[in-house]
Amino acid sequence: MTGFLGIRGINTYMNTIDDNPDNTTKALQVVRRIDDSPDLVDIMISIEDYFDRNSLYAFKNWIHGELIDGPVVKPYWISVSFKWPHKQMPDPMGGTRLMPHGTKVKFRLADENVPVKVKTPADYQPGTHKPKIKTEKIWIVDLLIPRRFVEDIDTEIMDLYDERVDDSDTVEDANAEGATEDNATAGVDNDQI
User: For residue range 152-178, what is the model confidence (pLDDT) as tens digits?
Assistant: First the structure.
């Protein structure tokens, strides 16, 4: 399989985790979340099929993107974010290829901290054996894809990863449990309410 979900991209991303403490938490969350759930892998494969059906990989550099966030499943949308080095900006025409289908595409520039290649002892951070960190520009493309294009996945699985908070019954549930306004705000000053 080629494209965004390739093992090479995940391995590259995992290798930068050890060298770059700023990316550690975010990278581990993304990789562990996908690795722990075969359903999220299936969702990413369906997204990749959607990209294939729309010939996205025919446009320059789209195949080299690395997943940095998502998939985040919402009621009607699935959001994902990919990154590219600044010099390898994906062709914006590829993004416009997805827009007639309802996909929302957002390109943005960002900074990423990356370790320098160690050639001399001066390339280490003072007092450590860790390489110095430099800031590089990257392109981030955020995609908001209509959920209907990932139809192959069972709706029960999709709802499992739906990141909404169901608060429709919270007041009724609290009242049923005997909560009143007086005991709900007990111990809280009027200035805090």
Answer: 555 555 555 555 444 444 445 445 555
Beta strand segments in 116-189, E: 133-146
Q: Which residue has the higher pLDDT, 107 or 151?
A: 107
Half-sphere exposure of 13 (CA within 13 A, CB side): 26
Angle between helix 21-35 and 38-53 (nearest 10): 90
How far is it, in rounded angstroms, from Cα 87 to Cα 85? 6
Both tokens assigned to 29: 């969350």
Tens-place pLDDT, residues 84-93? 999 999 999 9
Instruction: Please count the other Cβ atoms lying within 10 Å of the Cβ belonging to residue 19.
Output: 16
Contacts of 10 (CB under 8 A, 6+ apart): 31, 67
Domain boundaries, given as residue ranges, for the chain:
7-166
Query: Measuring CA to CA, which residue among 15, 11, 13 is closest to residue 84?
Result: 13
CA angle 41, 31, 15 (to 5 degrees): 130
- What CA–CA distance (Å, rounded) separates 77 from 158? 11
Could you identify the residue written with the tokens 């990749």?
Answer: 48
Sign of CA dihedral 109, 114, 117, 122: positive
